Amino acid sequence: MSIVAAPHPPWVEVLRAAANGFDLPDLSAEAWDQVLDALAPHDVAPFLYSRVRSTAQWAGLPPAVQARWRQAFQTHSVRSYLMENELLQIVMALHAAAVPVVLLKGAALGRLVYGSPAERPVNDLDLLVPAAAVDTARDVLVERDYLPQGLFWLGRWQRRYRAELPMVCQAADRRRLLVELHWSLLELPYYIERIPMHDVCQSSMPAPGVPGALVPDGATLLLHGCAHQMMHHGQDRRLLWLLDIDRLVRRGDLVWESVLERGQRWGLLLTLKFMLAEAAARLATPVPADFLRELAGYPGDSLERVMW
Hints:
The protein contains 16 helices and seven strands. By secondary structure, it is of the alpha/beta class. The radius of gyration is 20 Å and the shape is globular.
C-alpha cells in the first residue's frame, strides 16, 4: 500500500516515538510549534505528555513545548473527571431501570488500554443498549435533561435502518454534552443484521470503575475501532483513533484467532486489513506478521467490498 512507503511527517514521528518508547526526534523550537499545531486536532497531547513526562528527554524540550503539553493534559484531566462523573450517574440510572449497558469507544478504551481515562479524551459518551430497551434508556436520559435528536420519533422503524440515537443535555451545568445510544456496533443496516448483539454482550466483561456497566473484549473493540474509522470517519482520519488500535494490540492479550473468526463472520476483515497495515506502518504497531499475511489475500465478499 502507498501508505507504507510514504515518509512520516514530524508529528507522526513524535507519536510513533512515544508509542514505542523511542527517543523523540531532534526538533527546533519552531518545528516543535508546528508539530504541536498539527497534533492539536488529533487529541493525542495528553497521551504524549504522560509518556514523555517521565523520560530523560523531557528536560531537554523547549519550555514552551512543556507548557503546552502540561496545559493540554490538565485541561483534558478536568474534562475527563466531569465526563467520568456523568458516565457513572447515567449508568447508575440505567441500571436502576434494568437496562444493560456496554461502554463503547473512548469510554471503554480509556479505562482498558491507556494509563488513565485522562490520556484518552472523549467528546461524547457512546453506550450500547439492547434494541428492545432503547425507549426505556431514552426516558432515563430525558430525566437527566437530555433531549433526543434526529428521527427518534420514528421508533421501531428507525431501529431497523439506523443504529444510534443522539441525545444532547440541556442542563446548564452540562450543556451540550452528547450521549449516543447505540443498539448495533455500526450504523449500517447490513451490519445491524450481520453483527449479533448477543455475540458482543456474551464476550463483554465488567467495566473497571463503572459498576453495572460492561466493556467489550479486545477482539470486538479492535474490529469496532477499525470499522468505525473507515466507515463513519473515512474523511476525518484522527491519529487518536489509530492510537486506539495501537494500544489494543500492544496490550498483548488479543486472541488473534477470535479476531479473525469474528471479523470474517461479521464482514469486517477488509477494514481490519487496511487499518492494521496503517497502524503498523505509521506507529510500528506490533501486529503479528503471520496474521497480516493471512489477511493480505482476503478479498472480501461482494457486499463487504461495496460497503468498504
